Amino acid sequence: MKLTTTLMATSALIASSLAAGAEDMTLVSWGGAYQASQQKAYAEPYMAMHPDVNIIWDESSAEAVAKLRAMAEAGNTTWDVVDVVAADALRLCDEGLAMPIDPDTQLAPAPDGTPASEDFGDLLVSECFIPQIVYSTTFGYRTDMVGDKAPESVCAIFDTETWPGKRSLEKRPIGNMEWALICDGVADEDVYDVLATEEGQARAFAKLDTIKDNVIWWTAGADTPQLLADGEVVMGSTYNGRLFKLIVEDKQPVAMLWDAQMFDLDGWIIPANLSDERKARALDFVYFATDTQRLADQAKYISYGPARKSSAPLVGKHAELGIDMAPHMPTDPANAKHTFLFNYDFWADYRDDLDAKFQAWVSK
Amino acid sequence: MQPQIMGGPLAGATGGDGFVVFDRVQKSYDGEVLVVKDLNLSIARGEFLTMLGPSGSGKTTCLMMLAGFETATHGDILLDGKPINNIPPHKRGIGMVFQNYALFPHMSVGENLSFPLEVRGIGKAERDEKVKRALDMVQMGEFVNRRPAQLSGGQQQRIALARALVFEPELVLMDEPLGALDKQLREHMQFEITRLAHDLGITVVYVTHDQTEALTMSDNVAVFEDGRIQQLDPPDKLYEEPMNSFVAQFIGENNTLSGVVQQISGDTCTVRLDSGEVIEANPVNVHAPGERTLVSIRPERVEYNRARLQEGAFTLKAEVLEFIYMGDVFRTRLRVAGRDDFIMKTRNAPDAERLEPGQTIEIGWLPRDCRALDA
Amino acid sequence: MSDETNSGPVLTADGRSLKKSLQRALRREKLRALMLIAPLLLFVLVTFIAPIGDMLFRSVENRIVSETLPRTVIALQDWEYESGEAPGEAVFAALAEDLREAVKAKTHTRLGTRLNYELSGMSSLFRQVGRKLRRMDPDKPWREQFLKVNKKWGDPEVWGVIQTYSSPLTAGYFLNAVDLRLTPRGVEQRPENERVYIMLFKRTILLSGLITFMTFLLGYPIAYLLSNLRMKTANILMILVLLPFWTSLLVRTSAWKVLLQQQGVINDVLVWLGLIADDQRLELINNATGTVIAMTHILLPFMILPLYSVMKTIPPSYVRAAKSLGARPFTAFRRVYFPQSIPGIGAGAILVFILAIGYYITPALVGGRSGTFISNRIAYHISVSLNWGLGAALGALLLVLVLALYALYDKIVGIDNVKLG
Question: For B92-214, where are the E strands, in sequence order?
Answer without folding.
Answer: 95-97, 171-175, 203-208
